[in-house]
Amino acid sequence: MPTLLQFLLGLVLLVAGAEALVRGASKLAVAAGISPLVVGLTIVAFGTSSPELAVSVQSSLRGQGDLAIGNVVGSNIFNVLFILGVSALVTPLIVARQVIRQEVPVMIGVSVLLLAIALDGRIGRLDAALLAGLLLVYTVFLIVQSRAQGRVDADDESGVEQASSWDRHWTVQIALILGGLGLLVLGSDQLVNAAIDFARAFGVSELIIGLTIVAAGTSMPEVATSVMASIRGHRDIAVGNVIGSNVFNILGVLGISGLVAPELLVISPPVLAFDLPVMVAVALLCLPIFFTGSVITRGEGALFLACYVVYTVFLVLAAQASPLLPIYRTLVIWVLLPATFAVLLLVTIRARRQSKGSGAA
After folding, report:
1. Which of 33, 91, 111, 134 could be cross-linked to 283 through a Cys-Cys bond (beta carbons 3.0 to 4.6 Å apart)?
2. What is the DSSP string of 79-127?
3. Span of 66-75, 117-126, 230-239 with lowest mean pLDDT
4. Phi and psi dihedrals of 54, rounded to 5?
5. Bridge partner list, 122
6. What is the DSSP string of 317-346?
C-alpha cells in the first residue's frame, strides 16, 4: 500500500507540475507573438512531456536505463494509439494542414532516426547530443516560421486558455514555471521509486514497468490536455499536442537523458527487436489516416485504441513468459496486422474517391 500511495502521489505531483508549467509558459509564449499552433506543438507539448523528461533523467542518473528508454518508447506508443484514439472517440479530430504536411513527417523522421541510432544497442554521448541539437533546431525553426507568418494577437483563439486576472502578469507566469518544475522534480522522484518497488515486488522487469505503468502515468498530462481540447472544440490542439510530445520525447527526453547519464544508455534486445519497431510502425500508421483528409474519425480512433489493446496484451504475456505468447504473436503477425492494413487501405481508397467526387462536383 505505501508503494501504491507513493506512485499516486508522484502522479499527482507530475500532473500538477505539468499544469503549472504549461499555464505559465503558454501565456508567456502567446504574449511574445508565437502562433497558437506552435504553442501547442512546442510549449504545451513540451510542458506535458515534462513528466517523461523528469522520470527519464532521474532514471538515467540512477543507472536505470531500461526505465528511461521504456518510458519514452511506451509513452510515444500510448500517445498516438490511446490518446488520439480516446480524443477521436469524444469528437472527430480536425487536423491542421501544417500538422499533415510538416509535423507528422517530422515525427516519423525522428522515430526512424532513433531506430537507426539504436541499432548498435546503445545511445552514446554523440547520439544524445545529436538528438538534443535537433530539438533546438526544430524549436527555433517553428518559432521563426510562426513569427514570419505575422504576430499573433494574445486574444486570438488558440486552444490555449486566455489569461485570467490572477496570472496575467509575467512575474506570476515565471513563478508558475518555476513552481511547476519543482513539482516535476519531486513527482518524478516518487514515481521512479514506486516503479522500481513495483518491478521488484511483482518480479517484472523495469523495462515492462517503464513501457506500461510509467509510460501511461507520465502521459496523463497529454491525456488531460488532448481530451479537454477535444471537448472544448480545440481539436487541432489535441493532435498538435500528441505529435509535438512524441517529437520532444525522442529528441529532448532521450537526448538530455543520454547527456546526463553517468554511463551510456544501453538498449535491451527486446526493445530493439520489438518495441522500437512498434513505435516506428505506430508513427507510420498516422500517414494513411492523416493524409486521407483533415479529420480523424471515430472509427479511426477506435482502430487506434484496438491496436493499443493488442500491444498491451502482448507486453503482459511477454512479462509472464506465457506459453500463449507464440500463438498470440502468430495471430498478431498473420491476422491482426494484415486486417489493420486492409482497413487502412479501404479508408485511403474511400477518401480518394470522395475527394475526386467533390473535385468533379
Report:
1. 111
2. IIIIIHHHHHHHSPEE--HHIIIIIHHHHHHHHHHHHHHGGGSEE-HHH
3. 230-239
4. -60, -45
5. 266
6. HHHTT-TTHHHHHHHIIIIIHHHHHHHHHH
56 pLDDT above the threshold of 50: yes
Query: Which residues lie closer than 8 Å to 101 by C-beta, 6 or more apart?
Result: none
Q: What is the pTM of this model?
A: 0.81
Out of 76-90, 113-127, 150-164, which region has the weakest mean confidence (pLDDT)? 150-164
Q: What percent of the chain has pLDDT over 70?
A: 84
Q: Kindly give, in sequence order, each residue whose CB lies less than 8 Å from that of residue 170, ignoring residues fewer than 6 positions away.
A: 28, 31
Helix (H) or strand (E) holding 251: none
Report whether 265 contacts 65 (CB < 8 A).
yes
H-helix or E-strand containing 359? Answer: helix 337-360
Q: Which of 41, 48, 51, 42 is nearest to 22 (CA)?
A: 48
**If you write DSSP's letter for every residue of 9-49 in order, what string do you get?**
HHHHHHHHHHHHHHHHHHHHHHHTT--HHHHIIIIIHHHHT
8 Å CB contact between 84 and 301: yes
Residue-wise over 145-168: b if at least 16 C-beta within 10 A, else e?
ebeeeeebebeeebbbeebeeebe
* Closest to 16 in 3D by CA, of 190, 160, 150, 134: 190
- Spatial separation of the C-alpha atoms in residues 258 and 237, rounded to whole Å: 30
CA distance 282 to 267: 20
Please state, in angstroms and rounded to a whole number, the distance separating the CA atoms of residues 155 and 29. Answer: 12
Q: Supply angle C-alpha 106, 110, 113, rounded to 5.
A: 140
Q: Which helix (H) or strand (E) holds 5?
A: helix 2-31
